[in-house]
Structures are given as C-alpha cells and as structure tokens.
Amino acid sequence: MLDTVIRNATLPDGRRGMDIAIRAGRIAEVAPGIDAEAGEVIDAGGMLVTPPFVDSHFHMDATLSLGMPRLNRSGTLLEGIALWGELKPQLTVEAMVERALRYCDLAVTRGLLSIRSHVDVSDPTLRTAEAMIEVRETVAPYIDLQLVAFPQDGYLRAPGAVELMDRALDMGLDVVGGIPHFERTMGEGAESVAALCRIAAERGLRVDLHCDESDDPMSRHVETLARETLRHGLQGRVAGSHLTSMHSMDNYYVSKLLPLMAEAEIAAIANPLINITLQGRHDTYPKRRGLTRVPEMMAAGLTVAFGHDCVMDPWYPLGSGDMLEVASMGLHVAQMTSRTGMREVFDTVTVNAANAIGLEGYGLAPGCHADLVILQASDPVEAIRLRATRLVVMRRGRVVARSAPAVADLFVEGRPGSVDPASYAPKAAEVAGD
User: Fold this and answer.
1) Catalytic residues
2) Pfam families from the entry (predicted)?
3) Containing domain of residue 258, as a range?
4) In-domain check, residue 174
C-alpha cells in the first residue's frame, strides 16, 4: 500500500505520462502506469512535476524590512550596507523571527522548500544568529534552511569580527561566509579568504563567500578562493556568490580563471535580480549589467545556481519569493534563449542549486525525499515563461500548499469562454531544436 501516487506527470527531462509512487515520505518508484493501491491519488493532468525550487543565496535576517529606518535612495550596494548598519541597532529577535516566518509562508506557496540564508554576524549581540536559528528550527518540518555565518562588515575590517565568527559557528550556523572585496585592501581580502577556508576545513564545514561583488575587473578574490579550496581539500564544498567583477574582466584572464575554478569544483551562485540592479551604478552609457558569465561557466563544467538574494530589504525594494522570476531575469540578461539554454536556466533554481548547497535526498529518483511541485506548465521552458502557478506543493509526501489554476474568464463574442495561458505555446516549440 502506497501513501500517494501522482499520475500522468511530465518530468523535467521530457518524459510524459509518468507516475510517481510515494511511501513514508520518499519516492518509491517512478514509472508509467504504476499498478498499486494508494491512500491518495493526485492527477497531474500532464503538467510538469519537478523537485522543489531551491534558493541558494538569500538574506532572511533582512527580508521584509523595506523602509526601516529609511529607503535606499541611490539604489547602490554601499548605501544598502550603510542602511543595514543603521537598522541593526533597532533589530529585535522577535521582529526578525516574525518577518522571516512570514517570508517562509510565502516561500512554501511558491514551491520554494530549501533556502541558504546569509546571516550577518557583525553585531556583538549576535541577535541575527539567535533569531535565524529559531527560524531554522521552526520551519524544519517544511523548509530546509541553511545558515551562513556572514561577516557583513568584513572579517578583518570590523573590530571583533574574528571572534564573532567563531561564536556564531559555535552557536550552530552551518556554513562559513565572508566578503573579501569589502576588506580595506586587496591583500587583506586575500588574507580573509585564506583564514575562512582554513576555519571551514578545521570544522568540517562548507564555504560560501560573497566574492567580487564589484564592477572592478581587478577584484579577483575568486582566484584566491580556488587556490585555498585546493589547498585545504574543500573541492565540492565551496561556493562563490555574486562574482560580478567577472562581467568586467578581460577575456584572457577569464580563460585562465574558469579552468582553475573548475579544478577546485567551486559552485558559482549568481543573483540576477540584484546583480543587474546594484551593479553599473557608476556607469553612464554603455551601462554594465553586472551578471557574471553564466553560459561560459556552464560550458567550463561549473555548477551554476541562481539565488533570489533579497526581498523588500535595504538593497532591493521588490521581490516575490518566486525562483521562476529569478530564472526569467537570468535567462534574459545572460541571453540564454536557445531551448537548451532555457532548460539549463531551469536547473539553476532546482538541481544545480541543490548541488551547490549540498542538499541530500533531492530529486525525482527512487529513494529521494518526496518533495515535489506540480506546475501549471507543460515543460521547464513554459514554467519560466509563465512563472507557472504552483498547483500542488508537497513536502515529504504531504501536501503543504495548493493553488487554483490560473484560468481567466473571457467575455468576447465568438471567442472561447476561458483562457488558460499554459495552453498557448505553439506545439512546434515543444519539439523544435535550437
């Protein structure tokens, strides 16, 4: 006896008419026409069934704080950091927990069930760490929340930051973070990378650094990150987030850098919505967009993921918790509009993101957690194009959110009485090549 069977599903790899059997919170079988009794049967109706969305880079301690204590008038990264510094003395554990839990409610309805959040550990009170640990425990039944110890004011630049990093990790934060381009000098930035990788190696933790979030093509801390990853045997456990300086680097240097990053098995986490908003603010025209070299990284064999980064906070006044919005922006800015490119972008917010943050039991294979989303779309490209409605969201085999299909009534003589946006793609597009 199965707990649940999802019937007539389309999978991200293109298989259609598939059934997914679920028992004890895990996927038991994936095959057409599974002949077994189940406590619940869900008809996917030919719609896309995918593992849940994964946000590999977020700041949950700041989310939904827009306007506190004021707005970011310049729209720059540095004013956002300064504004966050003004807000920190006013933060309370209770308020941060309340805002984070509200965001997590939204995330679940968006099919977003795994989030890596960077937690500012620059305040001696470590209120942010205390609050986010409470949130992690509260949402554990429905969201995998990883917490990065992030020295927002600089690991070497800010007084006491070295000790605060140790204290935060001792409290139970999961990942070692950093911000080398915010240190006083390039030399101190490189020194911070070496120190943080050493800490991760000694503690057996993963690393995720805000790295080269700058328009300066000479900001090259990712090179040091690759070297220290190899030195400490951290291959496959390290991510470089943002990497926007690579947008401005010369091609010859990048041709050397990408193989080094691939050798170190560094994951690259871009944040399209925020990177194109905060970068290029000092330019007139042509104006740089700041997104790192996504297709080139993929071609070099790197794991490339996208993060949402911010939702209604000192750095970004918008955001909806929708990783398909993130994917859509990344697709456009990276000009990945071939069929293959668009499918690869879908992976940046699902399987690639899961790999980048080291999730276990993720996927649609037997034995994986029964964490699934049914989308009102026929394939991954359609899901991005439509920012498809999440019809059903499942966590460990239990439905945790449902949405009605997005179908509009139409009152035009001689035309259909309703419009389903998921039915309008030319059929040729489903089978056409690039």
Assistant:
1) 213
2) Amidohydro_3 (PF07969)
3) 53-356
4) yes
